[in-house]
């Protein structure tokens, strides 16, 4: 079964381009194999120290996370989200985002959002769970 997350940041109701320097700082040390670029996006295959992996695509307006495995790779995804000041669109349709993004969301998006002081693994698990296996 496939699991997909989208990381988005909004400013004044518009999507913000992910900061490439922050992405590289977080993902380059955990890059597990050849990535590449395709159609204007950069692909990363990342692996945490416990061996858990995920595919990450950095696109013009968002970051996709495909098939993250249970384990420490979730800590990397959460760190990336938090350092970017982004929110996470989870498969149930909720948008988990920092409280300070509330005034920047597009009209109507606030109703489907879960606001937290900061993006943490615990906040993500509360919003996206329950999971059958612990994420970390």
Please outline what is shown here:
With 136 residues, the protein is an alpha+beta fold. It has helices at residues 20-27, 73-84, 121-128; strands at residues 4-8, 10-11, 14-15, 36-38, 41-47, 53-58, 63-66, 87-89, 95-98, 113-116.
If you had to describe this structure to a student in words, what would you say it looks like?
β5 (41-47) and β6 form a beta hairpin. By secondary structure, the chain is α+β, with helices and mostly antiparallel strands. The two termini are 19 Å apart. The mean pLDDT is 90. It is built from 3 helices and 10 strands. The chain has an 8-stranded mixed beta sheet with strand order 4-5-6-7-1-8-9-10, with helices on one face. It has a two-stranded antiparallel ribbon with strand order 2-3.
Mean pLDDT: 90
Spans of 5+ residues with little confidence (pLDDT < 50)? none
Percentage of β-strand residues:
25-35%
Largest sheet, if any? 8 strands, mixed
- Count up the helices: 3
**Care to count the β-strands?**
10
Distance between the termini: 19 Å
Biggest sheet strand order reads 4-5-6-7-1-8-9-10
Shape: globular
Radius of gyration: 14 Å
Q: What would you call the structural class?
A: alpha+beta
Provide the succession of SSEs.
EEEHEEEEHEEEH
Share of helix among residues?
Answer: 10-25%
SSE layout and pairings?
Layout: E1 4-8, E2 10-11, E3 14-15, H1 20-27, E4 36-38, E5 41-47, E6 53-58, E7 63-66, H2 73-84, E8 87-89, E9 95-98, E10 113-116, H3 121-128
Parallel strand pairs: 9-10
Antiparallel strand pairs: 1-7, 1-8, 2-3, 4-5, 5-6, 6-7, 8-9
